Amino acid sequence: MSRTYSPKLGEVERNWFVVDATGLALGRLSTEVARVLTGKHKPQYAMHMDSGDFVVVLNAEKVILTGRKQGQKVYYKHTGRPGSLQSETADELLNRRPELLVERAVKGMLPKNRLGRQQFTKLKVYAGGEHPHAAQQPQSLNLGAV
């Protein structure tokens, strides 16, 4: 009788990865980042626990939206008060806060529960090419350009 292997919390090794988003499509970047955050790239992946790694995304302002999404995709937010629905296009969000555009795309690809919220905390997104995580010695995660 074979038993299913389940990793212990102490066995999970967390690595740091850096992704340069220059010239990458937003959706393809987001799927790969979400895969690393959940830990699906590791052989000891378990869907019930957080076995993923940390990901630092640089140059979020240089990400590409394919097709006509830049002007047509709309992001909404609502405070809960009557009449407080606000909307902005992807182009406006990219100009105002490019980090938020990448964060929302990745968050939508993570589980919608406590585990997904825990995995999302391991994502660090920066609009420029500098980051304060040099002490963690992040490895480069190579994703092909469009």
Mean pLDDT score, rounded? 94
The CATH first-level class of the domain at 15-70 and 98-140 comes to Alpha Beta
Oligomer: single chain
What percentage of the residues does DSSP assign to strands (E)? 15-25%
Question: What is the spatial order of strands in the main beta sheet?
Answer: 5-2-1-6
Tell me the number of strands: 6
Distance, first to last CA: 47 Å
Q: What is the overall number of helices?
A: 5
* Unreliably modeled segments: none
Cα shape: globular
Order of helices and strands: EHEHEEHHHEE
Please tag this protein with its features:
5 helices, globular, Ribosomal Protein L13p, Chain: A, two-stranded antiparallel ribbon, four-stranded parallel beta sheet, 146 residues
Description:
- This protein has 146 residues and is of the alpha/beta class.
- It is built from five helices and six strands; from the N terminus they run E-H-E-H-E-E-H-H-H-E-E.
- The strands form two sheets. The protein has a four-stranded parallel β-sheet, covered by helices on one side. A two-stranded antiparallel sheet has the order 3-4.
- The longest helix has 13 residues.
